[in-house]
Amino acid sequence: MDTRKQEALIQTILPILSGIFLSFLIFYQFTYTNPLAQFLLGDVKRNQWIAHYDQSMEGQNPWLRNYVAFTGLLGSVRPEIIYLESMYDDFNTPLLGSNDYILKGVAPESRYWSFVTYDFLNGRIEPHEQTIASSHRTILNDLGEYEIIITDDPTKYPNKQSITHAGKDFNIVMRIYGPKLSYYENKDSVPVGSILPLK
Amino acid sequence: MINWVLKFIISLVLSQSFFLWIGPRLVMAKLDKDLHESRTNFREECGKRWVDGIIYPDPICIGDAASSRKPNPDFIYTIIPYDLSKGNLQVSTPVPSNDRYWSIHAHNRNTDAFYKITNTEIEKDSFQFIVSKDKTFKHNLPIAYASSNNGVILIRLTMKYFNEYDALDNFRRSTTKQYLKTL
């Protein structure tokens, strides 16, 4: 290669390719659930939970639009759905398939809510019917609280309400549909659950 | 050196803009492919998914090639892709009672939602509306104004119990779509 070509390569092609490469690396972080994307995109952070209030609003943050498209495809617009997601337990340890957990909290005031476990690649866990606890089927105590075991084998807890992670490392998504409108005014008022590992 | 850094930054910014623009469209293109497959590839366990341009994924198949990421297992999703270059779209759909969550969202090609309505806002047991890109278009039905020719309408219907699926699947299949002829 002659000197002129080398010079052109170093002075023009290299910075352009480096820019594209770094740009792709940045973009890629917003295409799957990971701590960086959650840290940068979460609307409100409550304990280990990241909340999104307006995932598919027109004119939204374009990185959030991509994150939603790649991880969930189609979101909603306010005031309709609040999504909360977590990759960690109360000790900020990733949610592991080798552990069982207890998820406790006060049920939100809404038309419908659910907790669903997904694997770290945002895939569905099977049997999917056992990955969900929802407002229609979850029994609350007198204080309006739920207590749900997350385990690889729900038969280990015959008298408890449980959902499965099927032994896979997982994240958990809480959906609140038709939420009380004051949750939008005071975002810290959305009740979030505690996730503690069980021995 | 300044020249080098300038080229680097310009390249970074331009390519980031491109990635952010193309990302949702790639995802929607994948959705198109999956929806097309639901029409051409009959699978016994998925039932009759494609009927007259409306896709009725069942909970077993929604998590795979049938197009939804991280679906909520309690939801029965109905997907209506549209192409407004064929005319304004009229959709008619049954509406369940308010004791179960149900909603319609209409999404542009870049996945943004431009229209939303839930059953608590509808008094009748069916709902008709129009999707149009023409902001001057008027009609006696509610109109959702899209900003792209292509997109999808997503209907969420909640199962309180999984054994309700057959009845609710039957219920949602009275949904229709038709393109209105332009005068």
Overview of the structural elements:
The complex is a heterodimer of chains A (199) and B (183). Chain A has 199 residues and is α+β, with helices and mostly antiparallel strands. Chain A has one domain: Domain of unknown function DUF1214, C-terminal domain (Jelly Rolls, Sandwich). In chain A, 24% of the residues lie in helices and 29% in strands. Chain A is built from 4 helices and 10 strands; from the N terminus they run ααββαβββββββαβ. In chain A, a hairpin with a 2-residue loop joins strand 1 and strand 2. With 183 residues, chain B is of the alpha+beta class. Chain B has one domain: Immunoglobulin-like, CATH 2.60.40.1610. The termini of chain B are far apart. Chains A and B meet through helix 1, helix 3, strand 5 and strand 9 of A and helix 1, strand 5, strand 6 and strand 9 of B.
Give descriptors for this structure.
A: 199 residues, alpha+beta, Jelly Rolls, 4-stranded mixed β-sheet, 4 helices, 10 strands, 24% helix, B: 183 residues, Immunoglobulin-like, 4-stranded antiparallel β-sheet
Largest sheet of chain A: 6 strands, antiparallel
Structural class of chain B: alpha+beta
Determine the strand fraction of chain B and express it as a percent band: 25-35%
Task: Briefly note the CATH topology name of chain B.
Answer: Immunoglobulin-like
The major sheet of chain B is characterized as: 4 strands, antiparallel
Q: At the fourth CATH level, what is the homologous superfamily of chain A?
A: Domain of unknown function DUF1214, C-terminal domain
**What is the CA-based Rg of chain B, rounded?**
19 Å
Q: Shape of chain B, please?
A: globular
Order of helices and strands of chain B: HEEEEEEEEEHE
Count of individual domains of chain B: 1
| Major interchain interface with per-chain residue totals | A-B, 54 and 52 residues
CATH superfamily of chain B: Domain of unknown function DUF1254
Rg estimate of chain A, integer Å: 21 Å
CATH topology annotation of chain A:
Jelly Rolls
Just name the CATH architecture of chain B: Sandwich
Distance between the termini of chain B: 62 Å
Average of per-residue pLDDT values of chain B = 90
Percentage of residues in helical conformation of chain A? 10-25%
- What is the number of helices of chain B? 2
Q: What is the CATH class designation of chain B?
A: Mainly Beta
